[in-house]
Amino acid sequence: MLTVDLHTHILPESWPDLASRYGYGGWAVLEHHAPCRARLVVDGTVFREVAENCWSPPVRIAECDRHGVALQVLSTVPIMFSYWAKPADAHDLSRLLNDHIAGIVARHPSRFVGLGTVPLQDADLAVRELERCVGELGFPGIQIGTHVGEKNLDDPSIFPLFQAAEALGAAVFVHPWDMLGRERMRRYWLPWLVGMPTESCLAICAMIFGGVLERLPRLRVAFAHGGGSFPGTFGRIEHGFHARPDLVAIDNPLPPSAYLRRIYVDGLVHHPDALRQLLRLFGADRVALGSDYPFPLGEPVPGTLIRSLPELTFDQQVRLLGGTALEFLNRSQEFA
Predict the structure, then answer these.
(1) At the N or C end, where does the chain have fewer CB atoms within 10 A?
(2) CA distance 116 to 168
(3) Domain ranges of the chain
């Protein structure tokens, strides 16, 4: 039973001084302050403490072996998206990050698969980098954030990227970032506990109600953290569509329930009943193991929650632990 972790993050061990490279601040810096430890710092403010498993392939492989994970899907840490920056600079950084991941995959092709990042604030540059990721670097797809500033994923300026992804057969993994409502969530880690799930729900609703999934029937899209709050509020969202079509069904006449079989999610929901709800809504062939390795809101031993459900059949476990992820990435034959 091949275990594939769809949702993991990686950084280079170092990168150039981006403020000097681009001429302005706001960029993340990795400060190595102790053996095997570093801090992500933005303009002097510590964003996150990380350990060497955030950048060291040998450490990652050793931990995967210990936890029974055969294959990790690597994507950058969302703080590196840099959608706020000048497009050319974000494109340059995307290339640096993507080349780094491609190098790791090239050295360990049986253990890692890469997802690229693109400068989503500029569709032309984003499409150009997507094409390079797929055609030159051999990635099966990309990871993007849930929004670009005030633009949700139904914004016309983002649509060309989705069009290109469908045409290329590229997978799109959507990860929450830059959570809304931070001004009211300054305590208790609420941006991560409340804001993140809301971001993912908003992104799903935008793509459904905005007609993105309807217009691009072959687009493969997955949402991190179990789709956020969408599964728990699906009943309300579906009811709202039917109760007030004059407000909700203005850009797409089909209800959210029509797209449940079009959406992939990871199973990172931390509770058996939450995972059962995912399976009821989407089915095992749309739910993939994702651990958020190596961060604290992730699952310490990937697959523990899936394996804890006694009612799952062997075939369902096969799908959840690896089959769904490989299908989403279009790599089922390669790793069969």
Answers:
(1) C
(2) 14
(3) 4-11+54-329
